[in-house]
Design the sequence.
């Protein structure tokens, strides 16, 4: 049993060390990936920590403990519970953001109005899996970052469902800023196009070659008569009218303020 106690303590310390990456900034790509696992799968790891703490407590109560064994047991329980707290911290942070986000969005964009066009039914897109009709796809260059390779987008032509222009969905792929590409959600993009939505699946610069916030600092040259520039402190649009670019007021004065 002594060996098992030490194994339990070691496991709890490993969990605790891993959980700290939810709070400590990553200093290299390897640590970044560990932090992604701790943050995105922390709820599962929290269950592992809770199970370990309960198992150690149950063993201590059943078998009784000497002073040294009790110290090891309580150290294991304590480390496991602290690890569980860190692993769950992204959940609590997300809940706090969710509570304040509606007010911040209203302050940035104004009161929510009834949608003027069609609305995407996300539940129908995900479950049950709907039949997919393949739509025409064309690739266009939309940006050339300074000192970097040109960025492209895949445009999924929509099925026409009426005389009004089709709304456009800009699809930004996942991957933790360091992986993924614009083709990974092709099935969903084809489904959206089949529902009458134009889709622009874009590429963006990836880490570690390009560190955040490089991913969001993109100046769109021209796509369908619209130009957009996003930066650290502003987001504004330009529309091509009568062969001249006309600026539109910023839709967000400071995007990062919304997510504080």
Sequence:
């Amino acid at each position: 049993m002594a060996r098992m106690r030490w194994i339990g303590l070691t496991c709890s310390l490993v969990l605790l060390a891993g959980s700290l990456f939810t709070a400590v900034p990553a200093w290299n790509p390897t640590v970044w990936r560990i932090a992604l696992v701790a943050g995105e799968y922390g709820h599962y790891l929290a269950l592992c920590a809770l199970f370990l703490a309960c198992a150690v407590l149950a063993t201590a109560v059943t078998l009784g403990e000497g002073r040294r064994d009790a110290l090891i047991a309580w150290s294991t329980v304590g480390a496991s519970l602290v690890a569980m707290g860190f692993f769950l911290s992204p959940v609590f942070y997300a809940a706090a953001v969710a509570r304040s986000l509606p007010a911040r969005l209203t302050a940035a964009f104004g009161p929510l109005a009834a949608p003027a066009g069609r609305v995407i039914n996300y539940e129908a897109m995900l479950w049950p899996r709907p039949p997919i009709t393949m739509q025409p796809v064309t690739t266009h260059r939309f940006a050339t970052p300074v000192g970097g390779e040109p960025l492209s987008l895949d445009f999924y032509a929509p099925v026409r469902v009426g005389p009004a222009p089709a709304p456009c969905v800009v699809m930004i792929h996942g991957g933790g800023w360091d992986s993924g590409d614009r083709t990974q959600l092709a099935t969903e993009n084809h489904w959206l196009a089949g529902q009458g939505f134009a889709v622009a699946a874009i590429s963006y610069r990836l880490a570690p070659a390009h560190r955040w916030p490089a991913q969001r600092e993109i100046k769109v040259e021209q796509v369908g008569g619209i130009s957009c520039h996003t930066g650290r402190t502003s987001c504004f649009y330009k529309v091509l009218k009568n062969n001249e670019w006309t600026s539109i007021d910023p839709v967000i004065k400071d995007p990062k303020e919304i997510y504080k």
Residues 221-240, 248-260 have pLDDT under 50 and may be disordered. The longest helix spans residues 67-109. Helices lie at 2-19, 29-40, 42-63, 67-109, 122-126, 186-194.
